[in-house]
């Protein structure tokens, strides 16, 4: 694999900030986009700009063909059983909200909902709103010393027969990988509905939703080298088909009269209105991009870079790593001594280094760690050892300045 050719496919990376070449270590927040994604979206707007599913003319036919081809690509990419199990949304957040709202009629007062303590807010708040509507009870699943889900505590909570279990595949804040196959299997033994947030996993791991065995798996395009504004809800057909639609209107109906409305079949029933057509086509191009890469080589390279990053941070000294272990995926969270994470991030930015600083939309996790926030450096297919060396050099200068 020619790394320099690969990196050259990302136009955003070829720029300087304050005289420094951009060192982008914030892929966990959003990945950069390769030219083929940008070109696919531009081709749609330049040549095929029309609404999908609705018109007889050729532009609409081509747009519909490309839109539905992306559904097939997603289905194959995550190894779903059938294409009707793939619902396009505007992102992970909407996907989880769609599920949490759609299950309202199936949840009753006193039902238990278990949520990963390290979950992103998008995998917490929708369930809290479901609990408000139904009288269900929320309980967090505790973490162990490595910030993975505490499996002993989890098995104990499962004895309470939860109705829903919401898990993270990979922590967005810490990069911690959870054994979701095992966790889902345990939840299914007690009859729980299971949802896995795969937003941080989708670009780094080979995903097989049938092997995981979850009822729902959700992710966003912009974390996997695709555009913003598009995401995916995968659901097992039978339970997906039972969801009450979050939104109603055009496209998702079969017949409408002033007496009654009959909803359409999946996937249309859960895709109301004009969808993000260009973004879905861009997501299809992102899948083409990822599928063409030597995935095992890329995974090995990312694991080696992450280990190197952890080692270099430890050697720098006065650094605290959070949840850092050998099975982390894509990200490392840290703080410099007692310095405020935002101060560290701003000083790094002045040297062209882009990292994320804050609570990472995981405030309950930060509270469990006794933190107000931390810094996070995250990797992508375009990250090099030179990027990490530049980051460590810049962080060393920040350390010298602040300590």
Key descriptive features of the protein:
4-stranded antiparallel β-sheet; single chain; 403 residues; 7-stranded mixed β-sheet; 14 helices; alpha/beta; 17% strand
Describe the structure in your own words:
The two termini are 41 Å apart. This protein has helices spanning 3-7, 35-48, 58-77, 92-102, 125-134, 151-158, 180-189, 209-212, 237-240, 277-292, 295-316, 341-349, 363-368, 385-402, and strands at 16-17, 20-21, 23-24, 86-89, 112-116, 137-141, 164-168, 193-197, 216-220, 231-235, 253-256, 261-263, 319-322, 331-336, 353-354, 356-358, 374-378. It is an alpha/beta fold and 403 residues long. α3 crosses α10. The protein is built from 14 helices and 17 strands. It is globular and about 70 Å long.
Which helices and strands, and how do they pair?
Blueprint: H1 3-7, E1 16-17, E2 20-21, E3 23-24, H2 35-48, H3 58-77, E4 86-89, H4 92-102, E5 112-116, H5 125-134, E6 137-141, H6 151-158, E7 164-168, H7 180-189, E8 193-197, H8 209-212, E9 216-220, E10 231-235, H9 237-240, E11 253-256, E12 261-263, H10 277-292, H11 295-316, E13 319-322, E14 331-336, H12 341-349, E15 353-354, E16 356-358, H13 363-368, E17 374-378, H14 385-402
Parallel strand pairs: 3-15, 5-6, 5-7, 7-8, 8-9
Antiparallel strand pairs: 1-2, 4-10, 9-10, 11-12, 13-14, 14-17, 16-17
Helix pairs in contact: 2-10, 3-10, 4-5, 11-14
